[in-house]
Write a structure and sequence with these properties.
Radius of gyration: 25 Å
Shape: rod-shaped
Largest sheet: none
Helix content: 25-40%
Structural class: mainly alpha
Order of helices and strands: HH
Strand content: under 5%
Number of strands: 0
Distance between the termini: 72 Å
Number of helices: 2
Length: 80
């Protein structure tokens, strides 16, 4: 009893980085990944808002009226 070394391979490759991985630049890597994800979401959101069409005008207020060009121009629909 009393510890010693853990019985593990010295050279291991895993997608997560191996045993007890904690890269020194994990904060900047996370910030870059989150910024990239936010950029992709913003781009998809804007393309979706540009292409949004409705066959029938909504009878009540809906959240997409805040960004949809087709629904913004309709004065008969106003936010309650």
């Amino acid at each position: 009893m009393g510890g010693g070394a853990y019985p593990f391979n010295k050279h291991v490759w895993t997608p997560t980085g191996g045993w007890w991985s904690r890269p020194a630049n994990w904060k900047s890597n996370t910030a870059i990944a989150l910024t990239g994800c936010a950029g992709i979401v913003a781009w998809v959101w804007s393309v979706s808002a540009e292409k949004e069409t409705r066959d029938h005008q909504p009878t009540h207020w809906i959240p997409s009226m805040l960004w949809s060009k087709a629904l913004k121009d309709n004065p008969s629909l106003s936010k309650p």
